[in-house]
């Protein structure tokens, strides 16, 4: 897995016509002045690889690139694993079935029922479980050999999931309280002196309609992006220091490699944590919408 | 010396969330030590708080990429 990661990081990707600048993180950390043979620090272009077919240029109609391919592979693998595990579901679970049941049970007991309560959680269990498994599988793709990039490390997928949660909690609130009462409960929280509404109402409106889905998206994307950049940086540095460094410098290459291993393990933790947090916050937002007036 | 001021900006952006996480995790530890029986509930609340604090640090990262 490690050579694959290093190779991917070292490839001097040509980022097509993207207007996003790479200057922010493409600081030449160990750079020599000239381009060839120097150290290629990873940048935002890592997340916009060349198209496999079609074109990913701005304004083009359709493009299919590596990250899309990784997402499709992850979806296929996830469906296959879930199918295999539940194909012959029995009361005494097999090993595969019990692992999947562990995940499903975790979402139900630790997230949905703890936040929403037993009865209210039921209609949302399917959504929360789907989100948990999708995010987890997509995140773990970031450390799987030859995939080497998380499906969630570009904004599309997290945005879709966040919009799903957004629509679900809005419609849950409207269905439970009716449009007027829901908006009143959300935008004019009771128990505040009325002049305070001048301040509170815009903040709450921003919170409900923009910030919740936006922060859900940004949290996941930025986490996976930062993790991938750290991995690429470590393994690219290993590659560079071992091959180009002379004498004792080669030893620092080993240090960079150890750092890369450590970050790989750290990424497993982050993948689990982000899947948990995304699902937890989804449950909380649904709960806010369902709450009686407080 | 070459570089980009955005790097320093992100360094600064991590200070606030760092303080926030420190206070929150420390308080949760103290609360768990006092009342171990509610540690599950405290942990869930800590994770919610961590998610809210974390996004502040990540905004710095995203802003660094966007406005460079």
From TrEMBL, chain B:
One of its GO terms (cellular component) is proton-transporting two-sector ATPase complex, proton-transporting domain. InterPro entries: ATP_synth_csu_bac/chlpt, ATP_synth_F0_csu, ATP_synth_F0_csu_DDCD_BS, ATP_synth_F0_csu_sf, ATPase_proteolipid_c-like_dom, F/V-ATP_Csub_sf. This is ATP synthase subunit c. It is a multi-pass membrane protein. The keyword Flavoprotein does not apply. It comes from Ruania alkalisoli. F(1)F(0) ATP synthase produces ATP from ADP in the presence of a proton or sodium gradient. F-type ATPases consist of two structural domains, F(1) containing the extramembraneous catalytic core and F(0) containing the membrane proton channel, linked together by a central stalk and a peripheral stalk. During catalysis, ATP synthesis in the catalytic domain of F(1) is coupled via a rotary mechanism of the central stalk subunits to proton translocation. The record marks 54 as: Reversibly protonated during proton transport. The chain crosses the membrane at residues 6-25, 46-67. Its main location: membrane. CDD domains: ATP-synt_Fo_c. Residues 6-66 form the V-ATPase proteolipid subunit C-like domain. It is found in: Cell membrane; Membrane. One of its GO terms (molecular function) is lipid binding. Belongs to the ATPase C chain family. PROSITE patterns: ATPASE_C. Keywords: ATP synthesis, Cell membrane, CF(0), Hydrogen ion transport, Ion transport, Lipid-binding, Membrane, Transmembrane, Transmembrane helix, Transport. It comes from the Bacteria.
């Amino acid at each position: 897995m490690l050579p694959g990661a290093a190779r991917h990081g070292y490839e001097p990707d040509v980022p097509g016509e993207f207007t996003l600048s790479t200057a922010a993180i493409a600081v030449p950390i160990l750079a020599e002045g000239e381009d060839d043979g120097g150290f290629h620090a990873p940048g935002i272009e890592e997340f916009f690889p060349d198209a496999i077919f079609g074109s990913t240029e701005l304004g083009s109609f359709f493009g299919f690139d590596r990250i899309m391919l990784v997402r499709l592979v992850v979806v296929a693998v996830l469906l296959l694993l879930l199918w295999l595990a539940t194909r012959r579901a029995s009361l005494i679970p097999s090993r595969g079935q019990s692992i999947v049941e562990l995940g499903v049970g975790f979402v139900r007991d630790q997230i949905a029922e703890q936040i929403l309560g037993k009865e209210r959680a039921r209609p949302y269990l399917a959504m929360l479980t789907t989100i948990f498994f999708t995010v987890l599988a997509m995140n773990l793709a970031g450390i799987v050999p030859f995939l080497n990039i998380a499906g969630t490390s570009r904004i599309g997928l997290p945005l879709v999931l966040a919009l799903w949660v957004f629509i679900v909690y809005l419609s849950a609130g409207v269905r439970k309280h009716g449009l007027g009462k829901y908006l009143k409960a959300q935008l004019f929280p009771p128990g505040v002196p009325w002049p305070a509404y001048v301040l509170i109402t815009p903040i709450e409106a921003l919170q409900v309609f923009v910030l919740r889905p936006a922060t859900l998206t940004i949290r996941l994307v930025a986490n996976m992006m930062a993790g991938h950049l750290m991995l690429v940086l470590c393994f690219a540095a290993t590659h560079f220091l071992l091959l180009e460094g002379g004498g004792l410098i080669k030893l620092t290459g080993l240090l960079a490699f150890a750092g890369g291993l450590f970050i790989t393990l750290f990424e497993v933790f982050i993948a689990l944590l982000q899947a948990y947090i995304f699902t937890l916050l989804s449950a909380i937002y649904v709960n806010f919408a369902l709450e009686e007036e407080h | 010396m070459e570089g980009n001021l955005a790097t320093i900006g992100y360094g600064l952006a991590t200070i606030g969330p760092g303080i926030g996480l420190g206070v929150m995790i420390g308080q949760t530890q103290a609360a768990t030590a006092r009342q171990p029986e509610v540690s599950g509930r405290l942990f869930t609340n800590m994770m919610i708080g961590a998610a809210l604090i974390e996004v502040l640090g990540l905004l710095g990262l995203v802003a660094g990429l966007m406005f460079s």
